[in-house]
Amino acid sequence: MDQKLLCLCGVFSSAVFACTTVLGGALRAGYSHIRDTISELFSPGSPNKPLLDALHTASAILSTLFGIAVLLFVRGGGHGDITGITGAVLIIATGLVNVATATVFPQDAWGSPATFAGQMHKVLAGVLALLSMSSILLLGMWLKRAGILPGFGTYSFVTFAIVLLTGGLAAAKLGTPIMGLTERITIAAGMQWTIVLSIRLCLSVP
Fold first, then answer.
1. How many whole angstroms separate alpha carbon 141 and alpha carbon 126?
2. What are residue 193's phi and psi, to 5 degrees?
3. 45: left (phi > 0), else alpha (psi -120 to 50), else beta?
4. Domain range for residue 133?
5. Rounded to whole angstroms, how far apart are CA atoms 87 and 75?
6. Full-prediction pTM beyond 0.85?
């Protein structure tokens, strides 16, 4: 696959994820993007679950391909080191883990009895948060040190701080009428970083 196209998979992944969330909410009567979490769209018995699962999986695969693009970029310019390589590998891992969060281990519907899959969903959600934040921080450190993509290292540090703060707020608001909103703010903060990096990489590769 062309490297520029691989780089743009970050944009495609984010777009598919956003469209999946909007579509899922529109197709589910009474669903609120302010009150309800995104994972609720994929709970067992949810309306249109097969369609949403397929779209979610496509987004996760595109995210994995984007991670491969980042890894190729890190290793291709002669500036690659363990920090940058690890950051790229964590993006790949994020995509792979994310495949299972809606399909294999969906969240239990609110108020329903806890299941093994639902408990695993919570564990994987925590893992995804750590992988995502770590990749932003490590790639920011690498870019800053290597002097590549000027300004993006600092931009990554700012994004990391925002995701950390909003993620803490989202955790504190679980079970409240605004938990959907706080979750989306955190996800949007991380997603915009992916989109900007995706475009910057696309413009940088031959």
1. 23
2. -65, -45
3. left
4. 3-204
5. 12
6. yes
Which tokens sit at 43?
């709970």
pLDDT 10s digits, 84-112: 999 999 999 999 999 988 888 999 887 77
Task: Name which of 11, 119, 29, 176 is nearest 41 in CA terms.
Answer: 29
Question: What sign for the dihedral angle of Cα 110, 113, 117, 121?
Answer: positive
DSSP state of 36: S
Kindly report, residue by residue over 170-185, the tens digit of the pLDDT. 999 988 999 999 999 9
The dihedrals phi and psi of 201, each to the nearest 5 degrees, come to -65, -40
Spatial neighbors of 61 by CB under 8 A, at least 6 apart, are 95, 99
What count of Cα atoms within 13 Å lies in the side-chain half-sphere of residue 83? Answer: 13
What average pLDDT does the segment 174-203 reach?
95
* Number of domains making up the chain: 1
Cβ pair 195, 8 in contact under 8 A: no
Read off the pLDDT of residues 38-73 as tens digits, 9 standing for 90 and up: 999 999 888 889 999 999 999 999 999 999 999 999
Distance in angstroms (rounded) separating the CA atoms of residues 139 and 196 = 13
Q: List the alpha helices (DSSP H) in 77-115.
A: 82-102
Give the distance between the most distant pair of CA atoms in the chain.
53
| pLDDT of residue 1 exceeding 70 | no
Spatial contact of 193 and 136, defined as CB atoms under 8 Å apart: yes
